[in-house]
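Give me the fold.
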Amino acid sequence: MALAWLLAKGPDIVPIPGTKRTRYLDENLGALDVHLSDDDVAELDKALTAEHVAGPRYNEGNMALVNR
């Protein structure tokens, strides 16, 4: 859904998902078959504001391992 949302945002947005497995590549390509309406995109934009998507990237234990 995230890839479909980014693809629906316009031709100037190009998601570059990373994957190690072919099955995940196939899953990512499935985003091309998801067609979101303008209302769908607006609803996702509203739900995915910085206020709703905030917090640490890692839990406390894993943060202790960053930049060691």
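The first helix runs from residue 2 to 8.
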